[in-house]
Amino acid sequence: MNTVIDAHNISKVYNPETIPVYAVNNVHLHLERGEFTALVGPSGSGKTTLLNMIGGLDKPDGGNIFINGNDITKLSANELIDFRLKNIGFVFQSFNLIPVLTAKENVEFIMQLQKIKQSERDERIKQLFQQIGLEDKLNERPSKLSGGQQQRVAVARALASKPQFVLADEPTANLDTKSASNLLDIMAKLNKEENITFLFSTHDQRVIDRARRVITLVDGRIVKDTAVVSTEHKEAATIR
Amino acid sequence: MIFIMAWRNIWRNKMRSIVIILSIAIGLFAGIAVLALYKGMMKSRVRTVIDAEVGHLQIHDTSFKKDYEPQFVISNGADLLKNISSMPEVKLAAPRSITNGMLATATGSSGVQINGVIPALEYEASQLKKKIIEGNEFYPAKKNEVIVGKKLAGKMKLKVGSKLVLTFTDTSGNIVSGAFRVAAVYQSDNAPLDERNVYVTMNDMNALLGISNAFHELVVLLKNDEDVKTVQQTLRKKFPAYQIETWREISPETDLLVKTVDQYSYIIMVIIMLALAFGIINTMLMAILERTREIGMMMALGTNKIRIFSLVLMETIFLTLAGTPVGILIGWLAANYYNRRGLNLSGMGREMMSSFGFNPLIYPEFPADKLMGVLLIVVITAIVSCLFPAMKALKLQPVEALRL
């Protein structure tokens, strides 16, 4: 195992000069390669803020975040864009595919940004669409795909750049049970077979049930960090 | 991919894009119409100057144009005329005797320039015969006939057959007068010129001036407009003793007018495009605003600012250029249609047009020579219009944009 995410004492505070509100308060988080982790907690607990900071979308007001040993809190906005492109895959709640591009183009776009050769892109697209089971939807625009299919394409897009880890913010929130289950199967399979690290923020019990580690946030603090050996045999590991 | 995205993005809101594309097409058509009209007007004005007023070149004694003193005739004029007429580039060379004098009638008098002409040559050199609106050309058997401009005729209450007296000084400085009868009234496209110039035969004029067969001015018409400079240089080398000027030098106001109107037409084009730029900016701002989340997502995924800027720039250029061929095509069709039929602007006032030396019947000409300039203005408009929306897009913070 090797460390992918190592966050120390990270905090995010809103209105620091008037009435300070800690969205994330002095959080430590350590993720190893190949983890399948759910970040849970009630609305406003700081899940998305924490995810955004780990993803380099938002800067913490205190603390450091090391991704593969690189402190991303020290990077400029432009360096962060490049860092995200090369290291992080994102899956958003509302799919966020580019509507004017086909499913294939949405995935290919990221690889183009990475300046990957056409032949290599074609091969990777073929492989990814096989993995998400949408080989027949390559040339469909997002508007022609169901929510579940769109989210599967979003997963393929997140994996297109072969990231260090995938951050998924409420990935199943807009999906029906069958689509959500299907999506989770795909992600679990990718995690198992390709050792891809996933960190979810979620309310969804279906995701929590599939996670091998569950971190609970309340009021910006981690109140529980549970490693799950299997769904049948749960074991409390750490409570911070 | 950015290219494909930009093109597809402009069709996301078809109606909005079509409206802006059409407005660009119409604006461009309006600009091209103005350019075509100006080009037609300027071409007509230049043609009038060359074909009906001063010719391509004029030759004078070097001292003549200082005070129009009649003694400064062109020395060896006959030889010069023969020599120039035989040049292959020359279509026609017409001599004129010129003096300034006074035209007097029973009711009043007016200062005029009296042109002594050889009728057959003058009819071709300045199309005097075609300009006659009343009366007849010079009758060879008759002496002391004069052709006066319409404006002067009106001012002096002259009619065909009216008698008048022309008074001027001869080469010795003596005042001489001659009684003339109006043979015809002419009207050109240049009212101020009509008011000032009267035409008599060179024989009658020279007899009064006492210069026998000499003349003061040699008007040269060439077969091709493009030969003006080279012929002038050749003549200057061959006849260094004479003052040899092109129409641009003789009529600098026309040259200036053509150049000024050229600049004006670009200014009009810029004004039209500037007005359109606000429409484009508005459309692009709406497009950016609607896609805040999408752009934020693109940034989150690793699309750098250069690519975001390129996307907005390309969308704006596509939006702008999409209307361009349509505008140019309509402009071309309209210019060609009116180029064949002519566009009669006499409704704007024939008098007014003529007071500026313009024929009210204009033949607009598609400004092909300015097309590159127009396209450049369009592209610059697109680039300038994209800056504000692009800055808006670049200022987006992915985390905030995604929250929307």
Automatic annotation (TrEMBL), chain A:
ABC transporter domain segment(s): 5-239
One MF term in the entry's GO annotations: transmembrane transporter activity
Top-rank taxon: Bacteria
Classification via CDD domains: ABC_MJ0796_LolCDE_FtsE
SMART domains: AAA
Keyword Nucleotide-binding: yes
Gene3D superfamilies: P-loop containing nucleotide triphosphate hydrolases (3.40.50.300)
This protein's UniProt keywords: ATP-binding, Nucleotide-binding, Transport
GO cellular component, one term: membrane protein complex
PANTHER family: IMPORT ATP-BINDING PROTEIN
Family label: Belongs to the ABC transporter superfamily. Macrolide exporter (TC 3.A.1.122) family.
Name recorded for this polypeptide: ABC transporter ATP-binding protein
Protein's organism: Ginsengibacter hankyongi
Automatic annotation (TrEMBL), chain B:
An example Gene Ontology biological process: lipoprotein localization to outer membrane
Domain ABC3 transporter permease C-terminal: 267-398
Residues spanning the membrane: 18-38, 264-288, 308-335, 371-394
Domain MacB-like periplasmic core: 17-237
Gene Ontology terms: cellular component: plasma membrane protein complex
Domain of life where this protein originates: Bacteria
Compartments (UniProt record): Cell membrane
Name of a matching Pfam family: FtsX
Membrane topology: Multi-pass membrane protein
Keywords: Cell membrane, Membrane, Transmembrane, Transmembrane helix
Similarity comment text for this entry: Belongs to the ABC-4 integral membrane protein family. LolC/E subfamily.
Protein name, entry field: ABC transporter permease
